[in-house]
Design goal:
With about 100 residues, the protein is of the alpha/beta class. Helix content is about 30%, strand content about 20%. The protein is globular. The structure holds NADP nicotinamide-adenine-dinucleotide phosphate.
Length: about 100
């Protein structure tokens, strides 16, 4: 069985599409965001705040790949730093960070 994929900001515009694609591909998908939204029943939601560092460890446990789609008007650098530290500590091997550039 493959390890879970964690999509930060999986309730956002880009994140929702990423989540749908991963679910369609048969992945075990987790979402981390501050507010729960309606999503596919197969998706496991973790409430957390990347800027504050809340809820990340539980969401990250056993995760092999992180797709970082969370963003807000301020603090993205700090949030990403906290996320990367948590991913390294959890032994997560891959982190995908989509760029706005070129889209
Ligand atoms: N939209 C596009 O067309 C597009 C294209 C290419 C690349 N991108 C890139 O993709 C990323 C996402 O963009 P988007 O347009 O999808 O943004 P968005 O719709 O504003 O979604 C942001 C997501 O991040 C979550 N979030 C915000 N602050 C958070 C925090 N402190 N902790 C945890 N989750 C947090 C939000 O949920 P909560 O508010 O509930 O926490 C939401 O799920 C950005 O890096 C952007 O540059 C976007």
């Amino acid at each position: 069985m493959t390890s879970p994929v964690l999509v930060t900001g999986g309730t956002g515009r880009l994140g929702r599409r990423v989540v749908d694609g991963l679910v369609d591909s048969g992945c075990d998908v987790r979402v981390l965001a501050r507010h729960e939204r309606e999503m596919a029943p197969a998706v496991r939601f973790f409430m957390g705040d990347l800027r504050r560092g809340d809820g990340i460890d539980a969401a990250m446990s056993g995760v092999g790949t992180v797709v970082h789609c969370a963003t807000s008007t301020k603090g993205d650098a700090d949030a990403t730093r906290i996320l990367v530290t948590a991913a390294v500590q959890a032994g997560s091997q891959h982190l995908v960070y989509p760029s706005i550039v070129g889209n």
